[in-house]
Design goal:
This is PTS sugar transporter subunit IIA. It comes from Virgibacillus halodenitrificans. Pfam families: PTS_EIIA_2. This protein has a single domain, classed as Mannitol-specific EII, Chain A (3-Layer(aba) Sandwich). Helices cover about 40% and strands about 30% of the residues. It has a five-stranded mixed beta sheet with strand order 1-4-5-3-2. Helix 1 packs antiparallel against helix 2. It starts with a strand and ends with a helix.
């Protein structure tokens, strides 16, 4: 799996961010053509914004049937965009970082989601996340979290 990394993504809305990220996955052949539609639809009904401190994070994902090859896309936004909070559609979250998950195997998806949630609960991780400069730095940061 070759994680896709986007620094300083400049967008005005969550839809623009999700569209840019989905487009990368579709254009590189990692997901089916309907992946974007499914991500946008899922985000409306089951939002993925997480109010972690000090930066909001979103973790959009869909069913594995839309995935051709497992992939994670990370985007650091130049300016935060508004997502709704996971589990509470009425609460807005200013999101600075997005981890879009696309996994073929549901077990693999769950394992990565659990590890990511563990990382996001670590205050030091969140502070370091804001300082990353490249993909290898991000992967090193994630791999250093104990599971």
């Amino acid at each position: 799996m070759k994680d896709i990394f986007m620094m300083n993504l400049t967008v005005g809305t969550k839809e623009q961010a999700l569209t840019a990220m989905c487009s990368m996955l579709i254009n590189t052949g990692y997901v089916t053509a309907d992946f974007m539609e499914e991500i946008l639809k899922r985000e409306q009904g089951f939002p993925t914004g997480l109010p972690v401190q000090p930066y909001g994070v979103a973790v959009p994902h869909v069913d594995s049937k839309h995935v051709i090859e497992s992939q994670v896309v990370f985007a650091a936004l130049k300016k935060p965009v508004v997502f709704q909070q996971m589990g509470n559609n009425q609460q807005n979250i200013d999101v600075s970082f997005i981890f879009m998950l696309a996994f073929r195997d549901p077990t693999e998806h769950l394992q990565h989601l659990q590890k990511l949630f563990l990382c996001l609960q670590d205050t030091a991780f969140m502070q370091k996340l804001n300082q990353i400069k490249n993909k290898s730095h991000l992967l090193q940061l994630i791999n250093n979290i104990e599971t």
